[in-house]
Amino acid sequence: MQKEVIDTVDIAIIGAGAAGLAAGIFAGETVSGAEPLRIVILDGANSIGAKILVSGGGRCNVTHEVVTPTDFFGNRRIIKNVLASFSVEQTIAWFASLGVDLKREETGKLFPVTDKARTILNALVDRCRELGVTMCPRHRVHGIERATGPNAGFRIHHAHGTVLAKHVILATGGRSLPKSGSDGFGYELARQMGHHVTPTVPALVPLVLDDRMFHNRLSGLSHEADLATIVNGKTVDTRTGSLLWTHFGISGPVVMDASRFWCLAKERGEPAEIYGNFLPGQTREQIRQWFMEEMKDHPRRLLVNTLAQKLPLRFAESLVQYAKCDSQAAVAQLPRKDRDHLLTLLTKFPFPVARDRGWNYAEVTAGGVPLEEINFRTMESKIAPGLYLVGEILDCDGRIGGFNFQWAWAAGRLAGRAAAGF
Ligand SMILES: Cc1cc2nc3c(=O)[nH]c(=O)nc-3n(C[C@H](O)[C@H](O)[C@H](O)COP(=O)(O)OP(=O)(O)OC[C@H]3O[C@@H](n4cnc5c(N)ncnc54)[C@H](O)[C@@H]3O)c2cc1C
User: Fold this and answer.
1) Which of 8, 78, 183, 408 meets the CB 3.0–4.6 Å disulfide criterion with 371?
2) Based on the structure, what is the number of domains in the chain?
């Protein structure tokens, strides 16, 4: 029988994503005794940082110029405290100290000046190495238990043996992009330590529409829209932003941000609908008046050309066809019934959402380990002292724009410093 390999460390971090690497760096930088701490990061993936590399379209949107609790969903009181511990300015300075300058784009998103996510990953990994943090890819953890004896810490069972650790930082992410290594098994590890896990659903995920819709023809087209998500007859979310039509349905920031509400409702078995107003900020009555003026001033203009003054032509054509109106008819010939129907589609378009696009396309996970089960000053578990939880595994998800990484850096820093005894 093969002998079990047992290593003993001060801090074992499970997961080498954004939160785990940040935790490793901040723990490694914390000098708490004469001897440097033994810190190991175990990760199940073959190579470290796959998700960082694909983030932000390969450019890694590191953070946002303004980060507030309202950019997140979850217990905002706790989120506020975690965010307050590491401001955006501190994040920028931290990256500068790692040799990475960030630039701000018009949208407020911050990226590395190189426009390469690799710059971010290399900086984090290099700093871990400099600090003597051992990084172990291909070390999937399949079990965690309390070791016996006073101050005995934890036994972590991984693909090649066992690690005995005084402190454990659980940074296994959620379920989004499972091929990156974050397949949700971290929730099982948290459960093994006595934690609860709220239902998890994809967030920041594109939505698939009924294939009888016209989305396929518009693939690649994007324009502004207001979206309203209605659950059980109640409006739970309204937002404005860029909507992207794709071969499967709809995507783009406004859809991605709204998706969590639709996914959560479906998970709960509640009826959920998403409506679009393609003339953002304008009411049905305002559009009706504009239409009447157009009919009066330019009666012979084609219906599609009238609409195309306010909408992309391709979209106007598809909408007119969908409304079963005659696209070649002059605007003044539009029967009132058709006009009313078109006004409804323009300002309260019921998207026939068939499903979300699934974990392979979700950027983040909504739901997870309740924030109330951790101490927000340290990210230490209130249920299993000595265990810390950081990043996406927690029940906190941010909107699109660099917020999820900011959460990972801030939480990772708190846990790293606390576990190292700062
Ligand atoms: C395509 C895409 C683009 C994104 N773009 C952005 C962006 O630009 N800006 C932004 O703010 N956010 C972005 N996000 C979200 C952001 O990447 C995540 O919120 C963030 O990476 C979460 O960090 P984490 O460390 O908590 O988890 P993860 O990055 O998921 O890391 C978890 C790590 O744990 C490891 N692991 C899991 N289970 C085990 C186990 N049992 N044993 C050992 N190791 C394990 C995994 O292999 C993984 O390396 C994007 C996400 C995706 C999918």
Assistant:
1) 78
2) 2
